[in-house]
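Narrative of accomplishments. A recurring question from our advisory board has been how the design workflow behaves on a single, concrete structure rather than in aggregate. To address it, we present the structure tokens for one chain from the evaluation set, followed by the sequence designed for it. No filtering or post-editing was applied between the two.
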């Protein structure tokens, strides 16, 4: 697989720290399901990442790993188009993490915004560990080991993708210049044949002298079209184009998930730590109970008091789930005391249950047959591992660690 094809690969992970809720579905999983039709996707359970914060409760992680995979499948993640695996079952991530840690300046990890924030905020856990500091480096190795070009994440993760790019650049800069790089690149150019070689040189010059993006892309497509050159030469030609050495670890980009904040039962963002969630596969009775007991506009004490949907958490959920007609009905009925709060909640309950119906149906076979889930994951791990192994061979060789 060439760099350009790998660049179309999508990789993302989630930490197994509990059951997934509707916030995960609307914020992340819907996006994964959409992407799987366009890209080769790898989705993985970031159990080592979970350990960096939850090292004292590994049981939670173990239970959540399998439930999370079921939640993914329930959401419509499709095995024909996506591979699902578990981070710790591809130990090459740890090896790359170690290698990258050698070249990552301490200041880079210290200034990742989530680092100081999390340390300051978490009073119930001690996060002043070596492992937690290395979190973004581990994440970089997750991404780079698959040479994934696209990483769908929420805005909070963008700094992690950014540090991944920096680390990749630094790695290529240090280890991508095998001795005689330029001569090898020149030889590779000649192998393309006279006409193509001339075109490559022209495009490269245009890009190097004028920063012409279009020339860069044309030259990349030209390399891509060459049938008769080795993978090593190809990487060299890609690297030489941009003036650097061989691109061993390509830089990924973040595919930002739209900032749609899913409101929870109390109007704050839906989050386990606010205790305001509806789980993806919550029991139906429990869904009904949770919505029925939601607080409403506090000014609406009696049924005859008019209310204001703009200060009511129930209305925020209508914004996510209801059509315009229903929203207008709520607004009129609420402000005129024409409808009661239970009337208002009824169509919402129906919508949430309707959304969850396919989750329950898809999940059923996996809940009844845990071995099926394990075999799906085993297959994903195999596939991931063969890519990870190949990358590690290149990495070891670039670093001069392939003594035999
Ligand atoms: N840090 C991510 C989160 O908390 C999870 C994660 C780990 C991840 N490795 C990744 C996401 C690699 C994308 C790519 O959500
Ligand atoms: Fe909220 Fe609906 Fe009650 Fe108005 S009628 S206060 S929007 S629950």
């Amino acid at each position: 697989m060439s760099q350009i094809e790998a660049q179309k690969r999508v990789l993302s992970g989630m930490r197994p720290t509990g059951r997934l809720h509707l916030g995960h579905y609307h914020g992340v999983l819907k996006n994964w399901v959409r992407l799987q039709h366009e890209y080769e996707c790898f989705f993985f359970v970031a159990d080592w990442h979970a350990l960096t914060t939850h090292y004292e409760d590994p049981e939670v992680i173990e239970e959540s790993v399998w439930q999370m995979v079921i939640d993914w499948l329930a959401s419509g993640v499709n095995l024909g188009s996506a591979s699902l695996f578990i981070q710790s079952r591809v130990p090459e991530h740890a090896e790359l993490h170690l290698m990258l840690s050698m070249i990552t300046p301490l200041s880079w990890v210290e200034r990742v915004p989530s680092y100081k924030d999390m340390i300051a905020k978490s009073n119930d856990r001690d996060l002043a560990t070596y492992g937690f500091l290395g979190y973004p480096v581990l994440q970089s190795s997750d991404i780079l080991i698959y040479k994934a070009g696209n990483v769908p994440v929420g805005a909070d993760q963008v700094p992690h993708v950014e540090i991944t790019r920096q680390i990749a650049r630094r790695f290529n800069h240090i280890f991508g210049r095998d001795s005689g790089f330029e001569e090898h690149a020149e030889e590779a150019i000649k192998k393309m044949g006279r006409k193509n070689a001339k075109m490559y040189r022209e495009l490269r010059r245009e890009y190097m002298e004028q920063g012409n993006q279009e020339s860069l892309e044309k030259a990349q497509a030209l390399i891509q079209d060459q049938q008769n050159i080795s993978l090593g030469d190809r990487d060299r030609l890609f690297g030489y184009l941009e003036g650097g050495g061989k691109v061993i670890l390509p830089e990924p980009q973040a595919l930002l998930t739209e900032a749609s904040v899913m409101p929870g039962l109390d109007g704050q963002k839906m989050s386990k730590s606010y205790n305001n969630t509806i789980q993806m596969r919550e029991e139906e009775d429990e869904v009904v109970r949770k919505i029925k007991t939601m607080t409403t506009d506090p000014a609406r004490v009696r049924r005859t008091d008019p209310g204001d949907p703009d200060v009511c958490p129930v209305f925020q959920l209508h914004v996510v789930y209801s059509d315009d007609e229903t929203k207008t009905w709520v607004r009129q009925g609420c402000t005129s005391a024409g409808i009661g709060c239970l009337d208002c909640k009824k169509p919402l309950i129906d919508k949430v249950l309707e959304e969850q119906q396919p989750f329950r149906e898809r999940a059923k076979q996996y809940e009844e047959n845990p071995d099926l889930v394990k075999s799906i994951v085993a297959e994903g791990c195999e596939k991931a591992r063969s890519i990870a192994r190949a990358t590690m061979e290149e990495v070891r060789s670039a670093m001069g660690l392939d003594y035999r």
